[in-house]
Amino acid sequence: MTDHDFLLHPEHWQHRMQKTLERADNVGTKARERLLKVAQEYERMAARAAELRAAREVLNERRY
Prior knowledge:
Strand content: under 5%
Low-confidence stretches: none
Structural class: mainly alpha
Mean pLDDT: 90
Order of helices and strands: HH
Helix content: over 70%
Largest sheet: none
Number of domains: 1
Number of helices: 2
Radius of gyration: 15 Å
């Protein structure tokens, strides 16, 4: 496992998204808007990580 393997784990990004949403509940309006945008990006990154993980698995299967 490399230092960057977490990038391919949707769970990592989903966890960050959840923590960001929790923080958004405890701040003012402007900060909440910003945090919600960040949470949306984490959600997008989680989806991308799932795609990349699936692609990596397909490539690994083809090698064997």
